[in-house]
Amino acid sequence: MATVAPSAGLTRRRRAWAVFIGFAALAIGGFVWSVSIGPEHIGAWTLLKGTLAQGHDTKQLIVHLIRLPRALLAVLAGGALAVAGAMTQTLTGNPLGSPEILGVTSGAALFVALASVIVPSLAGVDTIFLSIAGGSLAAVLVFGIARFARGGISPIRLTLAGITISLLALALLQGILIVFSQDAELFFFWLVGGVTYASWRDIHTVYPWLLAGLALAMLLARSLNGLALGDEVARGLGYNVGRARWLSGVCVVLLACAAVGVVGPVAFLGLIAPHIVRRVTGSHNHFVVLPLSMMAGSALLLYADIAARHLDRHAEIPAGVVVAPLGALVFIYLARREKVAI
Q: What is the pTM of this model?
């Protein structure tokens, strides 16, 4: 019987730590860069003071009230979407799985947009609740369609059902925004997503939900490792497969919808980050994949927002404009490379 040398396990752990440090450095560098760029040139000392406290100086106010929330929201939302993507891929047994492929992000964005432009009486309702309601409904429809299809649930059926619901929600969203919204910037925000309109209110609204979702994800890491082995093997090892899937689904909806409620439907981020992590670490252990995906997702959204700001310094281009084409290329590559059973 073959055994794994202790040195191999030590090497994997060292590699995981090295990747974590690398992603952390990228995220910190992106955070500093994000706070430092803008139409107004601000020195390093003023940046530091504006980051630590609001102050009364105009430049400190710019840093504290505009740039800092933008960078923080990119960190929180990017990390949440990446973790949701990693969990979705394991939950569905589909390497192409992500919250937007399952229709969750489009459903969430549709409900928030409905409240924003059609039903003013819902304006006082927290967007997080509306987002979770929309994403949950979309997820139920997707799994319902896949479950009652001939042959039952399979990765490809889930993907097809998810794309169908996602396209339907996106079409409804576009129609609503075209007919009822006169704000072009709002229109593009709810189509592609970004951190352009970040504020401290968004941070205070979303961080409890995201922290709760991330904590639940780490608590489910062991169960996700079991699900990754297949249902029969997981049951044989003593895992409660039904409960693990249900809790994982709740966690995905919570993380993805909370993020969409404040940054809009940023596409493919949940697909890209976990695959980058698995590729550079060679690990499928969710105790490794989930925290590293969080770091990678935060870095990706930070740099996407930085790139979007450099595309046109005189206009606010949403970060989703940068992430979407990159994600589409990754999706095409994975669709050609991965073998997914029907």
A: 0.89
